[in-house]
Amino acid sequence: GRARERRPPPPGRHTAAGRKKGRRRSADAPGAPAMDKILEGLVSSSHPLPLKRVIVRRVVESAETPLSQAQCRAMFALSTRLVLQGPDPFQRQVGRQVLEAYGRYHRAEFEAFFNRGLVLGLLQRGYGELSNRDPAILDY
């Protein structure tokens, strides 16, 4: 093969040697993609299932990192939607794993999300297209 020409990184990118010090982006930084959006894009993507599983495992392992209440709520809402309306077993399983992991590490936020109103709403009105009598509601 031909030798590849090395190009400098585009502006805004940093090499290991030229990394700017003290400029880490936090999870709350404007423009930083939210974990729920990343996960949502991943599970519905056409990437191979083994790759999706590896990335989902990383998302689940990252559950112990601090998140804002809004970020936790977004993860709980997405995982609930995946559990109850996921179009395939993989998405429903991912929803359960994420809900369990984030619920374990963010208990106060989970209790605020999974409250009496949510449970009564599921049992009285169902969820989206699911009837309140659908077995998935009770499994959830």
From TrEMBL:
Residues 82-140 form the Ubiquitin carboxyl-terminal hydrolase 38-like N-terminal domain. It comes from the Eukaryota. It comes from Hypotaenidia okinawae. It holds the Pfam family Usp38-like_N. This is Ubiquitin specific peptidase 38. Residues 1-32 are annotated as: Disordered. InterPro entries: Usp38-like_N.
